[in-house]
Design brief:
This protein is mainly alpha-helical. 62% of the residues lie in helices and 0% in strands. α2 packs antiparallel against α4 and α10 runs antiparallel to α11. The chain is globular. The mean pLDDT is 90.
């Protein structure tokens, strides 16, 4: 369960202000379209291919990528319906921690990693079996854990995440925790990953690992 009090306090202490999320931004576009075209919000959402309930769900589960395909589809529909530019559409997707810049490819090649898989598995707190699986189907939590364990910079993390259709979003608390540790703390690889997970656990947010150590 999300600990909103702790989330707000942690962000406030570090002068971090979350940007409007996907649901909030979509609502704003929908309201503007509604007023201009004199239709109801339900009609707007119907044209987008979603419902008010969907938007409410995305607002509550703003840190989940399980609805990624649906969100990207709605963002594309919003581009057509609201006349958004490519940059505005990408920004809308980014507000959900997602990106249209998905290239895919072997994870080891994307990481330019030539070390032993067992070492990367140990440092990233991911089982070897899952790491080999992630060569084809990485998750955002796994990618963030791996990039933290490799001491990559924020920009390097963003580059790798976007290759798989994700991004560190200024609208998502968990992503801003990662960004803060990478940007404002001396990066200490595995120790940093443990520290990030300690904060995420206190916040009640998904941890960046697939196995306990």
């Amino acid at each position: 369960m999300r600990n909103y009090k702790f989330i707000n306090e942690w962000l406030k202490q570090r002068d971090i202000r979350l940007a409007p999320g996907f649901a909030e931004t979509l609502r704003q576009y929908a309201k503007e379209y509604k007023n201009i075209n004199n239709v109801t919000l339900n009609e707007v959402y119907f044209q987008l291919g979603c419902s008010k309930q969907n938007v409410s769900y995305w607002e509550i589960h703003c840190d989940s990528t399980q609805s990624g395909k649906s969100i990207l589809r709605i963002a594309n529909n919003a581009k057509e319906l609201f006349g958004l530019t490519d940059d505005e559409t990408e920004k809308l997707a980014n507000s959900a921690g997602l990106s249209f810049s998905c290239e895919g490819g072997s994870l080891m090649q994307v990481l330019n990693y030539s070390g032993k898989v067992c070492e990367l598995s140990e440092n990233a707190l991911i089982s070897e079996r899952m790491l080999r699986h992630y060569k084809k189907i990485p998750t955002k939590q796994a990618l963030m854990a791996i990039t933290l364990s490799l001491n990559l910079s924020f920009d390097e993390q963003q580059t790798i995440l976007k290759k798989y259709g994700y991004c560190l979003s200024e609208s998502v608390a968990a992503d801003m925790v990662v960004k803060w540790f990478v940007t404002y703390r001396e990066n200490k690889g595995r120790k940093t990953l443990y520290e990030v997970n300690e904060v995420l656990e206190e916040m009640g947010l998904p941890l960046l690992m697939t196995r306990m150590k």
